Every structure is written in structure tokens, then in C-alpha cells.
Amino acid sequence: MNGMAEPVTTLGDDARSATVALPATAQRGALDIEYRWLNTHLTDAPLAVFLHEGLGSVAMWKDWPQSVCDRLGMRGLVYSRPGYGRSTPRPHHVKLPVDFMSVQARDILPALLDALDVSAEERKRMWVIGHSDGGSITLLYAAAFPDALAGAVAIAPHVFVEDISVASIAEAKTAYEQSDLRSKLARHHDDVDSAFYGWNDIWLSDAFRSWSIVDELEYIRCPLLAVQGYDDHYGTMAQIDTIAQRASHTRLAKLDNCGHSPHRDAPQALNDVIVDFIKKHDGSASA
């Protein structure tokens, strides 16, 4: 499971974008996953894995994961989920299932870590940091593998469906079809329609209105930080308040003058709270 394509982008000596092949299983076909390592020279440092938003990719993170890893003295792993970036696109006739985020947490991410030879010991020291849909996947991974990570950070996650989320996602569809949003996203995805409609169609489906991962939150035992902006138009504070109700050890961070993307809207405030939290729970991280 270690076959690797030639790098498609090189950013310095140890920030490299490439693809790794995940073989077919009974549940899915073979996949190519775009990924990038950060700070590989820190060979003994813990690993931070970054999970992107519903329309994100390796490239769309820009330099934010690097800034977090540099402040913490950690290695980093950034990757594009199937259907996004340079990873295997979603076939247009295939609709995402209601539990697509659970599949990512319990199947795709563990398979990627296996393919990249991330050992069980490394995973116990690993932090998972996710934004939006990636934040939800972070919570699901922490619930499914409670003894296999050091901690988790969920940024603007979804744990149930709110009307404000559906309304904003419907507005995004209008923007995609009537403005330059499609051309902007096309810079970052090999199949932009696959990426957009895979995300948009499932979120706007009737079946998804009852989606919830609230019950799974009670299985999270690792240190957990949940972050949300007060001006988030894709979800309210009820999302992270619910996390704290179900996983009482959760630390909440509520950011002023911040929308759905704290790493873009309030990067300094977000970095400060993440670094402070991880330093308190991981003695091997350095600032």
C-alpha cells in the first residue's frame, strides 16, 4: 500500500504534494489520494493531520497548516479527500451516502495512514485538526478510535443539521451556477462539478435533514477543542455547545469577528487558542 505517484507540486524540501494509491476494498474502489507532508525534518515530533472543509483541498488550506505546525514544532499531513483536489473524483452518477463523513473517519483516513506507514505508536501521539465537514470527520475519528490519538481540534464542525446551514448551502448552489464561484473552485479541483455537487446535493437532500452524530460524541475520550465564530453563517453556537454537553471535557473557543472559516477570518486568534490547548495536553509539542 505504499505505491506513490511522481510529485505534482514541490514547495521547498519537505512540503510535497503527491498521490498515494489506496487499493480497492469490498466497500469501495481503488483511490488515489493527494497529500502533502510538512516539516518532515522533525522526525521525532508528533504528527498533526488536517482535514479540510466540504469544498476544500490540499491547495485551499494555503499556508495555514504550516503556520500551526511551525508554532507547535510538529510534523503535518494535509490531504484531499476523494472527490476533491487532485484525488480520485467522485463519479458523477454516484451520490454521497448520508453517512459519508463516517466513511471518511472509519475507512479512508485509517487506510491513508496505513498507506503512508504511520505506525500505531505515531497515531497515539497524533493530533487531528478539522474544519467544517472536516471538523465533523475529526469528531467521528476521535469517537471511533478513542485510544489511537493524542487529541482533536474541531473548527466550525457540524454535529446535526440546522436551517441556517441548509439555507447557506442553497445560496452556495446559486452562486456556483450564476457567478464566478465555479471558475474559482476549478483552480483547486480536477473535477470541480464532482467536488461541488457531491457536497451540495447531499447537504440539500431530504434524507440528510435527520443526519446527526450527537450520540457518537459520548465516545470521545481524548482532549478536545471545539472552535466557532460568532458570525458563522453555516452554523450556530448550538453546534459546539452540544459537543460540550455530550463530551464534558471539551474546551470551547468562541471567536469574535469571525465567520465559518476561522483560519482565514481570525488566524491569529485561532492559532493562539490551538497552540495553547495542544501545549497543555502534549508535552512533546513546543512553541
UniProtKB/TrEMBL annotation:
GO CC terms in record: membrane
A molecular function (GO) term: hydrolase activity
InterPro entries to which the protein is assigned, alphabetical: AB_hydrolase_1, AB_hydrolase_fold, AB_hydrolase_sf
DNA damage in keyword set: no
Sorted UniProt keywords: Hydrolase
Originating organism: Paraburkholderia largidicola
Domain AB hydrolase-1, residue spans: 49-272
Protein's recorded name: Alpha/beta hydrolase
Top-level taxon in the UniProt lineage: Bacteria
Pfam families to which the protein is assigned, alphabetical: Abhydrolase_6
